[in-house]
Amino acid sequence: MPELPEVEALSGFLEERLTGRSVWRVLPVAVNVLKTYDPPVQALEGRAFTGVRRWGKFLDLAADGGPEGGLHLVVHLARAGWLRWQDALPAAPPRPGKGPLALRLELADASGGAASGEGFDLTEAGTQKRLAVHVVGDPRQVPGIARLGPDPLAPEFDREALAALLGGRRQQIKGLLRDQSVVSGIGNAYSDEILHAARMSPFKLAADLSEEEVDTLYAALRDTLADAVERARGVSASELKAGKRLGLRVHGRAGEACPVCGDTVRSVSFRDAALEYCPTCQTGGRPLADRRMSRLLK
Questions:
Q1: Residue 120, C-beta contacts closer than 8 angstroms, at least 6 positions apart
Q2: Which of 32, 135, 159, 298 has a CA 20 to 30 Å removed from the CA of 98?
Q3: How far is the C-alpha of 107 from the C-alpha of 47, rounded, in Å?
Q4: Sign of torsion, CA 238 31 56 224?
Q5: Can you give the pLDDT at residue 295?
Q6: DSSP class of residue 31?
Q7: What's the confidence (pLDDT) of residue 297?
Q8: What is d(CA 143, CA 66) in angstroms, rounded to the nearest whole number?
Q9: What are phi and psi of 189, to 5 degrees?
């Protein structure tokens, strides 16, 4: 799943290619990705993009005003969605139901009077179709954005802001970091990476963290995300997924050696996901029981 660093990189990638360019046509291929219908997605046609920004894991493509005012194309890539930039889109219109293509957006040429052939495809692999596309006048009209907690890389998100979010919560720190209403933009992969950097068990309760542990967690969170954003900066959309995996130390690396201590990275499976951790670095050498057995080895 694309998380804060990848969506931040996609935002920069698109900002360079879309700002000032007009939309020639928008072709929704999988209608289920459209979560809003008024205005229709075709209302973007003829409008010029004015900027791109990130809200948590959401991409916000802003377009200039028409009779109804400015519009925002807001995209959440979910678990298996992706954006594929095309310098030369296929001439033939896409066929619904064929392959992973969900939506195609083509840009106009410099004059605005003809198709340029450039644009992007939104695709989604797998059977769990959760890719979401909204067209709204204000991005805060998207329910997922309205519920977002603070951005962990915002200047005002300091150590005390994190401490305030953690205080009194009888919630496992892994789940809390992934809760978008608490902290926005962090998902399964980077929560594993942050906790590994902090040398902290994913099942430790937020309310039980000492002042020193809060200090350590804050430094690990900021450093892990900032480093990932820097690695992704300037990387093309087609290479971001591979670049993300190369930068991960424990997530997705069950059975491999921990790069810090050499112990074997372990995995805990859930219904539709898994977490990875290093026993030596994070749990005092004790392996965590698979959550499918609903217990934790202490």
A1: 14, 83, 84, 85, 86, 104, 105, 237
A2: 135
A3: 10
A4: negative
A5: 44
A6: G
A7: 41
A8: 24
A9: -70, -55
Specify whether the CB–CB gap between 79 and 98 falls below 8 A. no
Rama region for 236: left / alpha / beta (φ>0; ψ in -120 to 50; rest) = beta
Q: Which long-range contacts (CB under 8 A, 24 or more apart) does 110-113 make?
A: 112/22, 112/46
Name the 3-class secondary structure at 58.
Answer: strand
CB count in 10 Å sphere of residue 84? 14
Q: What is the pLDDT of residue 289?
A: 80
pTM of this structure = 0.92
Q: Read off the amino acid at residue 12.
A: G
Token look-up 């050499």 returns 262
Report the alpha-carbon distance of residue 114 to residue 210 in Å, rounded: 62
| Confidence (pLDDT) at 219 | 98
Structure tokens at 117: 């052939």
- For 34, other C-beta atoms within 10 Å of its C-beta total 16
The residues of the chain scoring below 70 in pLDDT are: 66-68, 291-298
Tell me the C-alpha distance between 270 and 249, whole Å: 20
Q: Do residues 268 and 288 touch, judged by C-beta distance below 8 A? A: yes
**How many residues are there in the chain?**
298
C-alpha distance from residue 108 to each of 60, 140, 186, 232 (Å):
20, 28, 35, 28
Q: Residues 233, 243: contact at Cβ < 8 Å? A: no
Residue 50 pLDDT: 96
**pLDDT value of position 294:** 45
Closest CA to 235 of 1, 5, 3, 4: 5
Element (H, E) at 191: helix 188-197
Determine contact, residues 263/274, Cβ cutoff 8 Å. no
Selection from 42, 54, 68 nearest residue 13 by Cα: 54
Closest by CA to 31, choosing from 131, 120, 99, is: 131
